[in-house]
Amino acid sequence: VEVYKDDEMQQSFDCVATCFFIDTAHNIIQYLEIIYGVLKDGGYWVNLGPLLYHWADSHTYLPEEELSIEICLNDLKDVASQIGFSLVKQESVPAAYLANIRSMYQTVYRCSFWTMQKQKRQDAAHKSTSSNKASLKKQ
Fold first, then answer.
1. What is the DSSP letter of 124?
2. How many beta carbons lie within 10 A of that of residue 112, not counting itself?
3. Which of 26, 80, 101, 110 has its CA 20 to 30 A from that of 51?
4. Residue 30 confidence (pLDDT)
5. pTM for this structure?
6. Strand partners of residue 111
7. Are 54 and 21 in contact (CB under 8 A)?
8. How far apart are the C-alpha atoms of 3 and 26, rounded to whole Å?
9. How are beta strands 108-118 and 39-49 bridged, if at all?
10. Is the dihedral of CA 42, 46, 52, 53 positive or negative?
11. Strand intervals (E) in the chain
12. Dist CA 39 CA 53 (whole Å)
């Protein structure tokens, strides 16, 4: 994460693929912002993995200031949209994890598999403005 925050990494990649990764974050929103930052405008983020998170007991072994943000899939998609991603495709798929196909014991996760596209800066700003106007009309 620290490496990809650097200015020289901004808008460097056409695509970022994450696999069994994003739920390792203390702050998943920070991960989304970093992925957004390193992608070129119009670039794609492809993700496969569960949202299990690993920090439920972190208060027992991390300093107090280390909080964890653990959001559900719908909230993650909302946050990604607010950051400037548009959802291209999303589905739930089974994915084996460290499995031996000959073993009687299989670990299979029900994972979220998606593709999101980074909107160009003016497109993201327009989308945000349009979304805010739509929200106001509903009220």
1. H
2. 20
3. 101
4. 92
5. 0.77
6. 93
7. no
8. 17
9. antiparallel
10. negative
11. 13-19, 39-49, 85-96, 108-118
12. 24
- What is the number of helices (H) and of strands (E) in the chain? 4, 4
Element (H, E) at 77: helix 73-83
Q: Report how far residue 109's alpha carbon sits from residue 105's, in angstroms, rounded to the nearest whole number.
A: 13
d(CA 113, CA 94): 10
Give pLDDT, residue 93: 96
Contact between residue 49 and residue 19 where contact means Cβ atoms under 8 Å apart: yes
Instruction: Tell me the CA distances in angstroms from 5 to 36, 137, 139, one per residue in order.
Output: 11, 37, 38
For residue 27, the one-letter residue type is N
Split the chain (139 residues) into runs of 10 and give each run's mean pLDDT: 83 95 88 96 96 74 73 95 97 88 87 95 54 49
For residue 43, count other CB atoms closer than 10 A to its CB.
Answer: 19
The whole-angstrom distance between residue 104's C-alpha and the CA centroid of its chain comes to 33
Single-letter residue type at 12: S
How much of the chain is helix, strand and coil, in % rounded to 5?
Answer: 40, 30, 30
